[in-house]
Amino acid sequence: MHYRFCSSLLIMALSPSLPARAQGVSQQGAPNNSSPSVTKVPTGVILVKGAWSSASDSVTPVPEGGKVADGVFTDSYFGMSYALTGNWTEKYTGPPPSDTGLYVLAQLSPAATFNGPSRGSILITAQDMFFTPLPATNVTELINYMKDNLGAGYELERSPAPVRIANRSFSLFAYWSPVAQLHWVVLATQIRCHAIQIVLTSRDTQLLDGLILDMHKMKLPEEASPIEGAGGGAEPVCVKDYARDDNVIARVDPVFSEHRFNPVPVRIIIDKEGKVKHIHFLSAFADQAKVITEALGQWKFKPYLLDGRPSEIETGILFGHGSVR
User: Fold this and answer.
1) What is the pLDDT of residues 171-185, one digit of tens each?
2) Which of 8, 70, 103, 286 is the least buried, fewest Cβ under 10 Å from its Cβ?
3) 253: Cβ–Cβ under 8 A, 6 or more apart, which residues?
């Protein structure tokens, strides 16, 4: 199930870090007799070598750019602002986005000063609907799929239903584990073609009710909706699969120097003239990002017309496995 997948990501991300040890090896493969170098990893930091998220510039907001500062979670890409109560904090940042477009934007837990009878957690995630492997095209379909595929040991407490949170539309459903005596409340909406999910977990249902009330303090863009939420206004309109052949005027395929087997999901912003303005790699090795960036700089698209006028759009392209789609 999706949320158990999120939890496994978090477990890996929050595992105690160990010193990274590097041993030198001579050109002939014989051990180097010199003392091995030791690199100490800072407390609370885990180093992972491999595919990572990156962008063509550091100015344009990206989904993983959210942060908690002065008791407020903000994410400029999604236009979100969530003021936390004094008893909630973020101890660890989430892992990098997956190659299926899953982001852990924040994991919040009670601070040491929390005095309630039972603790809990707040998990904020985003699923890029361009790249989701699930059979869903919007949040409503995603939530219904999750409800229909609850794992063994979980029971439905509340069927998916529309609710108003912070004067915006959400879909809410709840389930629980009788064995663990844990309750989950899932509230989801769509922003810029991403399913934003806020998952509240606790044994204390009163605590969960209070957290839902606190969510009314959030600030969200007007587009937030379980069915709509496709950008526009001050942000680019998100259009799935716009990089089809019939929309591409000029194209140069990237030439990779190394053969890898990982998918490379890429979000791009196309300006009003049809040129690639911004490139966001959800998960890519550095060499892949370099050659794809060079290739996309030579692409030219038909301008996207909105109400008859050229408009900026955001779309997704999946590179890798010998194809582009």
Assistant:
1) 999 999 999 999 999
2) 70
3) 295, 324
